[in-house]
Amino acid sequence: NKLDERLLRRIGELKERRNAVILAHNYQPDEIQDLADFSGDSLGLSVQASQTDADVIVFCGVLFMAETAAILSPKKTVLMPEPSAGCPMADMITAEQLRQLKAKHPDALVVCYVNSPAEVKAESDYCCTSANAVEVVRSLPAERQVLFVPDRHLGQFVQERTGRDLILWPGYCPTHQFIGEQEVRDLRETHPQAVVMAHPECSEPVKALADELLSTGQMLKFVRTSKAGQFIVATEIGILHALRNARPDAEFIAASARGVCPNMKKTTLDKVVASLENMQYEITVPSDIAARARRSLDRMVEILP
Ligand code: 13P
Ligand code: SF4
Known about the structure:
Bound molecules: 1,3-dihydroxyacetonephosphate, iron/sulfur cluster
CATH class of the largest domain: Alpha Beta
Strand content: 15-25%
CATH architecture of the largest domain: 3-Layer(aba) Sandwich
Distance between the termini: 40 Å
Number of domains: 3
Order of helices and strands: HEHEHEHEHEHEHEHEHHEHEHEHEHH
Structural class: alpha/beta
Number of strands: 12
Radius of gyration: 19 Å
Largest sheet: 4 strands, parallel
CATH superfamily of the largest domain: NadA-like
Helix content: 40-55%
Shape: globular
């Protein structure tokens, strides 16, 4: 509509004036994905944030992603259009809790999912995303114990794929937890030809029903080359927009209408305009924490799937 067109034009002008780049996660609202210079999964966004030569990064996602961009690009200004967009899973572990866990297992290596606060990354040896968690854990010496925080579902997936016993933390994503086993079972029955793709953050019974366990970026890659014409998608519903763009001929069915991340939906066109206009809201990480978190993030960006 006319208002959106006006806002989009304004965003274009301001982007040029600020030398800004807009990054958006695959779970963002459709119109935000469409206006972004790059949209992708957590790993892809981290790589983009570390490589861009823009002065300003407008991060359309949740807080841990913007913090990660600030750590990887310390000279750039990182803005979030809506700074209250957090990730409940990331908030399920604090640096103090991790320090206590490490004290109990002093010889263990710590791998933390990128969905974590910067201070937790600073206490970790390696960071990972759902796209490279298996590769990161495989790269560690077999004789070392590994603490994996905060997502126990991703941790369980990594245990299964690597055959290693990990010490897990009881964190989880509420949005993925909402996707029910029975819903997926029913859809499988009514759509026997469909390929079921699930995110590793899903519960174990849902993952057991899936044909493919993939990060959101991997889902996009998978459907581009798949011969299937119908897919059941067990993750946050924002990805359906990107999947439909990737394969306009195919049918994508959300495993559950409840798979919505309210924090991801806080970004609006208005807020992106205000963000560029007023240079708000700047996300910074204290330099001592950033320096320590940077080491675990650098290791993550090096180990690509
Ligand atoms: P990916 O896009 O990296 O698969 O991450 C999923 C997620 O929950 C991000 O919050
Ligand atoms: Fe966090 Fe889950 Fe939302 Fe991702 S989908 S940002 S893990 S709450």
